[in-house]
Every structure is written in structure tokens, then in C-alpha cells.
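Q: What structure does this chain adopt?
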Amino acid sequence: MKEKNIGSQTGNRRVVIALQMAGRPGQRKVAGILDYLAENDLRWEIRFVRHREDFSPEYVRSLANDPVDGILYSFDTVPTVEAELAKIDIPTVGLDVFDQSPLCGRLRNLAFVTGDCAATGRAAADLLLDSGIFRRFAFVPDVHHRIWAKLRGRAFLEHLKAHGFSADTYRRPRGTASDIDELATWLAGLPKPCGVFVAFDDRALDVMEACRTAGLRIPQEVAVVGVDNDEMLCEHMVPALTSIQPDHVAQGRLAAEILCAMMDGHVTREVRRESCGIKQVTVRESTPKVSNAGRLVQRAVAYIQSHATKGIGVMEVVAHLKCSRRLADLRFRELQGMSILEAIRKVQMDEVCRLLRTTNLSTAAIAAQAGFASAKHLPEMFKAAFGCSMGAYRNCKTGD
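A:
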């Protein structure tokens, strides 16, 4: 059964709504459409097409013999379907259709309403930054490499970079039906604690399962943020999943409004594009509580990571934060579990290890490049930190 008709009153607008309603995003979009109709005292004769395979080239062609007044669709279509949609002049609105190029040769009566993927990615970055505890971040895309997932991930990475942090991106092995083991290995190799943003809630469940497989604690070692806020999934996971909810209802309302205008004769002669932002961010147990001091501490961490090898001390960090040393030390230790000086030394020692592994530089040259004022105490500090001499570490790593 391809479609289901509702509202068959004579004279109603006849509208095809091709949209998957199995998940919360689709249900919310439909709720927005129906809200708009109710508030404006409108009735449509709606033909719901609820399965992707039913929204086929043949179905679109059939609309010429069984004409409709408007089309509202939300499936990621295939080129043959898009080719048919491009041929018709029926007012059409694409909801969360991100690959718009196959249709853009058609300029009349065409509009797209999408979620703001950039805002979603930035919100995920801000949420994790505001916790103040993470030293590393990562992004897990969807398994099909869809455009909306890439846009969310790009915004996440760029927002972190603007605040002085880098992030890893998971690359799924090709040809695997399930990648839980590979995902578990990748997560286990990330520096901890790590904040992980996942493209959408269903994939976030895979990440949480992979954490359990790897023996990683959520959120102490790996915090997880999803997208869509599917309450049935998010609230019944252990731990419950933090999720960002795009404003799907607003998308549905706006799509219905635009389609109504086009069906009423307001012909568009260029493609109209609109986006809707975020409805809410629901913080649950998969992420730590947001601290008022979190952003302060993350600014300190970012500054230390960028400047430790340039020879900075604690007072340079405090000056960057524009607060008292006592407050900076207190908040930093509270959220990072170490002092500011210890954090500086850790970055410097990591650089010493890297230089020992990859160069033949002398101890004095290594000390200078790692940000130490002199090499006098470096060998002693290195042995205390790693339990072996710098020479033994270099020889061991060279042998590997």
C-alpha cells in the first residue's frame, strides 16, 4: 500500500507528503505541518508516502495523470527520482534534502527547508567545551557518509579549532556489516578524557556499545553527544544519552507555509532555501554536568597546548585567563585533576618523547624545542616521569 488518503473534502488542496515517519524527526516534521494547517484553518487531502522505495520515478510520473497541487518530500532520493521531479512544475518543497544539485535546473516552484547543521555541530562543541574536563575531542559520522552528517561534523571540528582544540574523526572500515569492534579499538586509543560527538542518536548507540566493549566508562572517560533527541532511545539507554534536538516541528511548519504560498499562486522563479535552528539541548548522563568554570578551564587547556613548547609558565596562563592565580589553579585542578604547571609539563614532556622518537637532536636541542629554559634538569625529570633515561627511551623506540 503506497499511500493513505486523509481529509477528502471536495476542493481541498491535494498534497503528496513523502516522508519517513518511523523515527522522531519525521514524526515531528509531520506534527509541524499539521499544526500549521490547524492554526490556519486549512485542510489538505494528504497522500502519505511513507517508504523510500514507494517514492519512485514511476510514482512521480504518475502524478501527471492523477494530478496533485503540491509535493512535500523528505527522502534522500536517487538520480532517477530527482530527474522526474526536475521535469514537473508542481510546487515542491524538499525537507532536509541536502543534495539539491540534481533539481536546481528547475527554478520554478521549488524550495528547500533544512535543519541548521552548522548550528548543531557548534552546539555539540560548546556543550563539551563547557564541561571543562576534556583534553581531546572526536567526531563519529554516520555509516553512509551523508551530507548532513558531514556538515555537522565539519562545524564541530571548525568550532573546536577556533577555540584552540583539534579533534579526531572516525573512519569506518569498508565492507564491514558491523564495526563495533573497530569502533571500540579506535575509542580505546583516544586520549582520555574525550568528548565524542556523533552524527545522530542511532549511531551514538553504536558508540556507547563500543565503549562497553572496550571497557570505557561513560562519561568519565568518554562522553557521548547525539542528535535528534529521540526520547524512546535516549532516555532508556544506560547511561541516558545527551542529545541535540533540531527544530523539526519548525521545519514542518515552514515547509507547509512555503508550499501553501506556492499553491496559492506565489510562483518562485528561483530556488528558495531556508533553514531552522535547534529546538533544545537535552543533557543526560552520557555527558558530565556543565560547570560554570568549564569554559575558563578549557581556555587554559587550549592555551597550554598551543604555547607550552614556547616556554610559558603559570603566570602567562593566568594572564591569558584574566583572573587571579588562586582561582585559575583552583578551577583547573578541580576539573582537570592536575595543576596548571603539571599540565604545562605534560605537554612539554609529550614533545620531548616525540622528538626522541623522530629526531637525533641532542638533549639541549630537545629541551629548547620543548620549551624548557635549560637542559640541566630535563634528564632527571624525564626518568622520574617515564622510569627510564632519555637514551634508553630513544633506543627502545628506534628499535620498534
